[in-house]
Amino acid sequence: MDKRKGRTIKSERTSTRLQYSLDYLFDYYYQAKKSEGRAENTLKTYVQNYNYFCEFLDERKIIRDSRNINVEVGRDYINLVTG
């Protein structure tokens, strides 16, 4: 029986998954911008734009993993937004 207490040790597999998770990366970016003192409206815009991008990915069944984002995905998204 394991009697460790305190923080759970994440498996290497979980850590790798988080490392590439767009949601995790966006949260990291958001927290950095918040700590830099960005205006509340700017932070809301970041969230709104990220949510639009996630909707785009979800509609195309692209998993939110940074390894799935390439130039083609970026161009398709920009064409949709500016089109």
Describe this structure in words.
The protein has helices at 12-20, 22-35, 40-59, 71-82. It is mainly alpha-helical. It is flat. The chain contains 4 helices and no strands. The chain has one domain. 66% of the residues lie in helices and 0% in strands.
Describe the SSE topology.
Blueprint: H1 12-20, H2 22-35, H3 40-59, H4 71-82
**Poorly predicted tracts of residues:** none
Q: Which geometry do the CA atoms define? A: flat
Give the class from helix and strand content and strand pairing. mainly alpha
Number of strands: 0
Helix count from the secondary structure assignment: 4
| Percent in helix | 55-70%
Strand content: under 5%
* Elements, N to C (H/E): HHHH
Distance between the termini: 59 Å
How confident overall, as mean pLDDT?
89
Q: How large, in whole angstroms, is the Cα Rg?
A: 17 Å
Number of domains: 1
TL;DR of this structure?
With 83 residues, the chain is mainly α.
